[in-house]
């Protein structure tokens, strides 16, 4: 009952924060809609909207960012250009693209220096330092933070000075330089108090709380954490509230498991509601460990799965954000080029009429010569173009195959590591050791093969045998395996892409055999030459696709076979066929009573 009350209290506070944030965004949007003039204040307000959206709605944030860039360029508003680059740097930072983020901040510094906006220069320097801190390059982080301190001190930007010192203490804390961290907190705290900024104060109280907890001064640590949370709530700063909850759970010693779980649950609630994927991953990981300490294995596994899922989602989300960012940068660059060409054209129009006529005549002569020359070389050029196009298509296909292969290897390794994890969780140390030995041999085989686009069939079957050995060990020899490779294939030295049929074998084991109650489960793989193709046949006597799908629907609703999807693309590209071709044929097998008795997969690979 008490946990429910706390949960309701936290939820109500969060709703108030979301309402305040929405109200502020609505206020800024209304001002933009009612403001008739496109001036500097209009551009700055657009930037504020983009900044407010940068953590919650990337797409909208980019839309406003692009408006800031376009309007700043059209008005030649250098201050706006600097703001836009700062916002771009923040968006790139959120997507973990630190190199591009730093480049954006350096461009912001150039614009800031051009218009004398030293405050924006200091902000950019601090953000560059924050990037290096995240990358664990603490010396560079301190270097940029100190440069920002010098500027903010000169222009009396006390809030900026406070935030710069707080960044210094974060680097110190990461390197366990606790005395140095305390010194920087003491130097920066007066500036945070002087600025009366709740965000900065919350960060400083959080830093002091961590140091007190490290010194085993629990009462003082709790007081500072409480004050940090109070300051965060003054402006409904949900990200700072999240950091306080996680810090209390991580730093307070001898904290009861029940209380630690409540704190982390609060952090996870905030991260989930604000779509803070990194926060979801961090909170879920700690919740898994907390439940493990409390000997609640089911809950520990539940939150561990959330942690793994959110980590994968974060990777995918970062890819999407990077695509949006690259596209936006290209569009902005294109507009800059177009504007430059228009300016050059305008300058040409004001030149002397005689010079223009001379240039026109010269252009006409050149054009005539070009037409004459083009007429004679047309056929040769056309043939050359076709050859180049064919070569380009071949290179594109090769590159696609390389990309898919690099996606396949991590996917395969990830699934194999899950097997080791299962043994460890079941305290099967000997089996885990045997499994790990075989796994290292398999990894070495994969690494040896990764240097070549194609490998001999025999070597690929060797790797497949190692993988099946691992699976037999994992499932306690639940199934028997047979393979039959036509000697003509081995003697002919035919080659195939590495691990090309492994995902189908994996599906047969994981979804067909693993859930079967039979005691005579079998798996077979055959390879034979069929015309101009190599024909693989993978057959199992498991539960069949229909029952496997029902099981996944009940137990793995978010499951998606990434390995099969990648392999289908690899085979299609390698064979040079279109989607829908019959390169892969899956057949459901039934017994005499029309009951499912397994699955058969036929895979055709072009002979090379």
Structure explained in plain terms:
The protein is α+β, with helices and mostly antiparallel strands and about 600 residues long. It has five domains: about 120 residues; about 60 residues, no CATH class; about 55 residues; about 80 residues; about 210 residues, 2-Layer Sandwich (Heat Shock Protein 90), CATH 3.30.565.10. The chain contains 22 helices and seven strands. The strands form two sheets. A five-stranded mixed β-sheet has the order 2-4-5-7-6. Strands 1-3 form a two-stranded antiparallel ribbon. The protein is flat, with a radius of gyration of 31 Å.
Main attributes of the structure:
608 residues, alpha+beta, 5-stranded mixed beta sheet, two-stranded antiparallel ribbon, 22 helices, 8% strand, disordered N terminus
Q: In brief, what are we looking at here?
A:
With 608 residues, this protein is an alpha+beta fold. Helix content is 75%, strand content 8%.
Strand portion: 5-15%
User: CATH-wise, what's the superfamily of the largest domain?
Assistant: Histidine kinase-like ATPase, C-terminal domain
Share of helical residues: over 70%
Mean pLDDT: 80
**CATH topology label of the largest domain:** Heat Shock Protein 90
Q: In the CATH classification, which architecture of the largest domain applies?
A: 2-Layer Sandwich
What does the main sheet amount to? 5 strands, mixed
* Uncertain ranges: 1-20, 322-328
Radius of gyration from the alpha-carbon trace, in angstroms = 31 Å
Number of domains: 5
CATH class of the largest domain: Alpha Beta
Instruction: Report how far the terminal alpha carbons are from each other.
Output: 68 Å
| SS-based class | alpha+beta
**Strand order within the widest sheet?**
2-4-5-7-6
Globally, the shape reads flat
Number of helical stretches of at least 4 residues: 22
Number of DSSP strand runs: 7
Order of helices and strands: HHHHHHHHHHHHHHHHHEHEHEHEEHHEE
What is the assembly state of the chains in this entry? single chain
